[in-house]
Amino acid sequence: MVIPVSRSSRGSRPTIEGPGFLARADLQVLFDLLREDGRQLIGPTVADGAIIYDDITSVDQLPRGWGDEQSPGRYRLRRRGDERLFGYVVGPTAWKKWTFPALIPLTHSTHDGHKVSFEPEQATPPKLAFLGARACELAALGVQDRVLIGTEFIDPDYMVRRANVFVVAVQCTTSASTCFCTSMGTGPEVTDGFDLSLTELDAGFLVDSGTPAGRAVLERLPLRPASAAEQYGVAATVAAVRARIGDPVPTDGIHDRLLAQLDHPRWAQVAERCITCGNCTLACPTCFCTTLTQTTDLTGKNAVASRSWDSCFSPGFAKVAGGSFRARPRDRYRQWLTHKFATWWDQFGTSGCVGCGRCITWCPVGIDVRDELNAIAPPVPLSPESRLVEPVAATPNEFVTARVVNTKAETADTTTLTLTGVDPAFSHGSTGQFAMVALPGFPPLPISISRFLTDGIELTIRGAGPATRAMCALQVGDQVGLRGPLGNNWPLDRAVGRDLVIVTGGIGLAPLRPVLHAIVADRRRFGDVKLFYGARTPADLIYRDELERWGKRDGIDVSLTVDRAGPDWSGRVGIVTHLFDQAAWDGSNMIAFVCGPERMMQATSTTLAGRGVSASRIHVTLERHMECGIGLCGHCQMGKYFVCRDGPVFSIAQLGDTFGREGI
Amino acid sequence: MQDQASLVAVLNSTWFASGLEPGIQTRLAELSRTFTAEPGQELFREGDESEVLGIVIKGRVALRIHVPERGDFTILTVEPGDVYLWSALVPPYRATSTAVAIEALEAITFEGPALRAALREDAALAQALYPRVLVAVARRLNATRVQLLDLFAAEQVRTW
Q: Which candidate from B103, B143, B151 shows the least CB-CB separation from A578?
């Protein structure tokens, strides 16, 4: 974007409305202006083999010509071979060192006879200017603002220190292998949270202001208007940084994905490497946990309570009289990661991670948080099975129509209808969703979608009452009314990389059939897949051809059983739980999808729990009386849920003791 | 006839006999013999004296009950790891169903009278084995109850 430059009518110094250009040789003017303003300058300088932030007074102290190389557990300075002053990425120091110091006195207390007194320490921080804050670091300041002064109770020390800071941001023109601001939505573009921003070019800087205070400084700088080419060059450079970083941690849905994996085996694996040193939390620009230390003089009458940074990796961090709540390294690593990427959202409405990569570089054993996230809560593939589309004819008074192009009698009372001419929303529905299906004169009924086709869907319907019998009697060419797709889906994304066990009975296979199609379409994403399917008699098994194909060709371990059979049946007879109640499984990496009569699902979840599958990984789909399908009519309430809107798929952990309880 | 060590290993591979103390498993192996049957071979008939207690190692045994006028119904299949003819340990020692091997069967069997005598004489063996038999029978009882519910039957639409 080219921003117009106007000249003041008085014809004196030009007023630059957009970004201006500051020659590198003139950067000292900025230093001097800020110092004249009574500010202590904090900026980058080379010390101890790294680029750290420290007190500086002169441009000569900046890391001229220095760059850095970063990778998990590794940081090295390198000569760039040019004169750039900001040609590096973030180092080990975070600005919180000044806004939220590592150690501050908090309270002075005295003990005099029976009398005690407590005197709060008042911070009188110097006026500071931060020079060189990157986009991720601006975001980190914003995160700490939310945590420390953004809720009902504020941290007074932080508030006064923060208010005293003038921020000069520097846009990134380079990146490290550890950067992932792009994934966290914090950079590399500087957009907010600064007074002045600089972007370095070969000969100088593009300068812009973000606040009136910044504007006031900008207007005193020896600037010339930035040329369109310079502005374009800056945008292109930052865009190239963005492209180079890519999207290493797809964060769409990371909150739910991560919290759904509290019992993932990877926590124990990463804990074998993690030495719980706490480096990650000390280097992190948003970590805010602290501890209090009491120091008394020799008389014992005067004491100072000091506050210092603490780390959730410290052994005593979660200690109470009876022991520590997070005694194991795996507990502490899980606490840290789930707080940063998930529960921080619940507490503060933002991520706790800004993607600066410090925890990766400065981890002495090179644990890469991006790898851990991708292993523990793998990204949701943007495939039909994992996203919910906007339903069509969402309200109960409207329907779209579809035409029957095929009918298949599955059993004596169950028919699969293939519908075409449906709204595309249906084809983009997700496994486990249902449609409200209507014929004139009959009440609309919720029917699970048993197959998603590119130009249609299939519905498998058991003729149990007048409306379903009328649907089963439809012929090729007949039309039906549809609303949907409605409800939630099977959490197939959680099954990626895990063993999956599907237990179903009767027509309960219908809502799970799309799950099997999705697995077959991308079989390698899943571990062992077992399908246990029970029916009343051999004649009541549906999708018989597909069952055979899934078992013989598609790498799915299919086990069938029936409740009763004639002598011509050579398969199993017995209840479906007998297929695995004595199995020598390890259920710790297993996720289960269960659909059938509620009594059968209860028995199944009990048996699965006995095989080590936790309640949060056992999912069932519930059937309740539904009339609207969108949580308005009230019929399908189950405890705090509307089965149609919040379900029909729930984990046993979600349902708690309402599952299987009489009369709920 | 297999040697004892391999019989012990085979017993250990079944949920019914796995994890028993080595001494008990050796004693069971002494009492056992291997048995095979062809698909379609009838092992025993309902009402027959229960001559052996068997553990299915491989294959499948259908337990059938005959209903006059309606024919034979398979009410359960015994799968690897599970027992058949537990009635060999419970008076009156009569089979409660007819058993047919519906897949080539490999089993380990225990002669009823010899097993009963051993259980009477060897308290440690009885203490180890009876709970397993009870689990097998209770498991079957529970399954039968669930089957009785006929959960997959079509919904009975009642007027009120």
A: B143
